[in-house]
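[stage:ingest] chain + small molecule (fe (ii) ion)
[stage:ingest] validated
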Amino acid sequence: MIIERQEDVTAAALAVMQCTTDPRLREIMVSLVRHLHGFVREVRLTEDEFRDAAAILNELGKLTTDTHNEIVLMAGSLGVSSLVCLLNNGDHGNTETSQSLLGPFWRLNSPRVRNGGSIILSETPGEALFVNARVEDRQGRAISGAEVDIWHASPVGLYENQDPEQADMNLRGKFTTGEDGRFWFRSVRMVGYPLPTDGVVGRLLRAQNRHPYRPAHLHALIFKEGFKTLISQVYDPHDPHIDTDVQFGVTRALIGDFIRHDEPHPTEPTVRPPWYSLDYIYVMEPGVARLPRPPIK
Ligand SMILES: [Fe+2]
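[stage:predict] done
[stage:export] tokens:
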């Protein structure tokens, strides 16, 4: 097709996309071209801006390594990750869901911990946190034998892989739910943390006068045959950034029952008040049990 007017480019590109053999890839590519061309027209993208955009995409890729995923950070900072999650869970976005973002820090092979154990592997100063969770199906029936990966940031806001002060796999653990669907463990109270701001995402946030913080949260990945793998984050409602999460991840269903206790702990005499408890029920939906690709090693 010889292009006569600017409108012809869109028609020509759409016609080519229509030739895609795979129907799902065809649907995605036709829509992508329609929206991309519409976007370019709407903002009247200049040539300089187009070259900048190509350089930015290039930089996002170059900044992504085995231990850092700038693309995941950018997708979250644009709200895309959260939208994809909500559209694909909770009856396609119609009901509440325990699903949330995977984030960039899940690792395979967390150390196995018995229920009631601790996930603190190296000295980690902070207030004690006792997590008591239950895994249920949508009818409220306990799911036993589910494999639960837990990970969270330290009281200074760093994951162990970001922090030479912490032992490998500190504040990470793998549990199995009991007959009653429960798993429980001891850790330290995490705090919110800023995204790394020395890359493309940081420049965007500064340009928009946005803070880079995620509110304090507990990550979980729960695996059980017959259920869609549950990737969750439970948030602390007392965090100052609870309603301005830079990654748009906080939903009502993910706000946890974090409670401060000033009395002595009933069974752990060495715990000094204040200590914290978190009770939470994870709800799994029927589906295919599949592990995601770990964003880092
Ligand atoms: Fe996180």
